[in-house]
């Protein structure tokens, strides 16, 4: 899953990025209002964590912009202000959750997980697709009740496919989801082919079905 962290405090921003990347997320960041606005207009995200107080603008205006763009991203607003009016305004504008600084990174992760489950998987703590079972809390994947070992990218790829099952997803969308800002510099889609080949191999070795169908010239359909 692809996240955007909008935070102007370098130490906190780096701590959040490092922690969430260890949890297997693809993370991008913005350190001021202008940069954040450019990113939400250009890229799609699964969840956005936005500080209210930003250089050059206000995080609540980012929430407004996301809603005007009809973005489906989950939104968590964070602020040092423990003011009820900020919380209510953010939630009224369409934010999904609110965290007051200081907070534990594990709590932020739990809230991101809850939003992603609610938006992509109807709030389920266990995700099932035929013989495939995914437990996001522990990043466990079972095929026919047997655990399989996936890399971080393979795990994110599988979740993305399940969340978009039976839809055609383009190679560009997959590249952006797996690689974030850096996918343009990859030069080709070879890394996508490699991850898909490895994921398919591990699923088949566990006697699972091959649900990854190539849509020639476009991308893939799962299921």
UniProtKB/TrEMBL annotation:
Source organism, top-level taxon: Bacteria
Limits of the OmpR/PhoB-type domain: 124-223
Residue ranges annotated for the Response regulatory domain, each copy included: 2-116
Molecular functions (GO terms): phosphorelay response regulator activity; transcription cis-regulatory region binding
Location of 4-aspartylphosphate modifications: 51
GO terms under cellular component: cytosol; protein-DNA complex
InterPro entries the record matches: CheY-like_superfamily (IPR011006), OmpR/PhoB-type_DNA-bd (IPR001867), Sig_transdc_resp-reg_receiver (IPR001789), WalR-like (IPR039420), WH-like_DNA-bd_sf (IPR036388)
Gene3D superfamilies: 3.40.50.2300, 6.10.250.690, Winged helix-like DNA-binding domain superfamily/Winged helix DNA-binding domain (1.10.10.10)
DNA-binding region per Swiss-Prot/TrEMBL record: 124-223
GO biological process terms, semicolon-separated: regulation of DNA-templated transcription
Keywords, sorted A to Z: DNA-binding, Phosphoprotein, Transcription, Transcription regulation, Two-component regulatory system
PANTHER family on file: REGULATOR OF RPOS (PTHR48111)
Name assigned to this protein: DNA-binding response regulator, OmpR family, contains REC and winged-helix (WHTH) domain
Lineage: Bacteria, Pseudomonadati, Bacteroidota, Chitinophagia, Chitinophagales
């Amino acid at each position: 899953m692809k996240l955007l962290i909008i935070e102007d405090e370098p130490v906190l921003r780096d701590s959040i990025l490092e922690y969430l990347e260890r949890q297997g997320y693809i993370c991008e960041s913005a350190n001021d209002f202008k940069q954040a606005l450019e990113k939400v207009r250009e890229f799609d995200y699964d969840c956005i964590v936005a500080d209210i107080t930003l250089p050059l603008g206000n995080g609540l205006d980012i929430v407004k912009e996301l809603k005007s763009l009809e973005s489906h991203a989950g939104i968590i607003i964070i602020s040092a202000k423990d003011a009820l009016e900020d919380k209510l305004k953010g939630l009224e504008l369409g934010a999904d959750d609110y965290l007051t600084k200081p907070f534990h990174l594990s709590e932020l992760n739990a809230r991101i997980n809850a939003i992603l489950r609610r938006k992509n998987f109807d709030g389920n703590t266990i995700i099932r697709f035929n013989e495939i079972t995914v437990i996001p809390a522990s990043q466990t994947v079972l095929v026919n009740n047997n655990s399989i070992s996936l890399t971080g990218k393979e795990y994110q790829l599988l979740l993305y496919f399940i969340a978009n099952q039976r839809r055609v997803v383009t190679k560009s969308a997959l590249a952006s989801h797996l690689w974030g800002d850096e996918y343009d510099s990859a030069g080709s889609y070879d890394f996508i082919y490699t991850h898909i080949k490895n994921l398919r191999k591990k699923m088949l070795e566990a006697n699972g079905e091959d649900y990854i169908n190539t849509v020639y010239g476009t991308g893939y359909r799962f299921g």
